[in-house]
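Q: Hi! New to this. If I give you a protein sequence and the SMILES for zinc ion, can you show me the bound structure?
A: Yes, paste them in.
Q: Okay, here:
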Amino acid sequence: MTLAAAAVTAPLAPRRLWAGNTLTLGAMQIDTLSDGFLTLPGGFILDGAPPEAADILARYGLGTDQLTPPCNVTLLRDGDRMVLFDVGAGHDFMPSAGKLAEAFDTLGVMPEDITHVLFTHGHPDHLWGLLDEFDDPIFPNAEFVMGQAEFDYWTNPETVNTIGAARTTFAVGAARRLEVIADQIRLIADGDEVLPGIAAHLTPGHTPGHIAYELRSGSEGVLIAGDAIGNHHIAFERPDWHSGSDQDAETAAATRLRLLDRLASEQMALIGFHLPGGGIGRAERADGTYRFVES
Ligand SMILES: [Zn+2]
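A: Thanks. Here is the predicted structure of the protein with zinc ion bound:
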């Protein structure tokens, strides 16, 4: 590269760091924005799976002690609408996540510009970015949307007692944040058209009221799958296996199988919150199972 070429391309470098990937669908522009990554003990995924799950991880160059999945928040721009799917982990979940503000800066988007926030579910890495360090909403002009069953679960005072010791902070943290926006949230059900061209699919198991969002433009579609398909290795090779990350592992496996079958059959684009390469790709059948193909 010549010096002149370096000078021209240098200002774009941060964009590659924080804006994960881009896709267009009709008039919709879709960007995935990195919120950083999670730092998890391997058991978070491996608990409940057979021992052979470690062999799959090894094939992907991953060990079993610690996993560091990326976090991809999706931004859709369509005319006057600026729609965010989940809000990232915020400032107080874990140091490696909560970087969405840096991605916004890179794209020149302000939190005040966001017109709608559509939640897939209420886990910390998807919801806790709702409030700043003073507990004020970061997206002051947005309408918030969440599945009715998901909202009911996290706002039920019994959830903190039934969710299990490992996740009590999840329950307390979700209830506190949802209380702040309770008057500004629209609750939706399976099959609802949330906004023009955006349909909700109840995809339970990872959480009780998890919603995936299907974007449509003519014959083209994109599925924003949230955590219904939670990683690019075990979830694709053995979607039937139980994952420690799912609150109802049996239901989550059934949901995953149903989604992968449809995604592969229709060759629909897929955006996964914890999938690599900015999370955008497709599911393809491979030897009786599936694999994730980045695009
Ligand atoms: Zn997640």
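A: The CA atoms of residues 37 and 70 lie 4 Å apart. Let me know if you'd like me to explain how to read the tokens.
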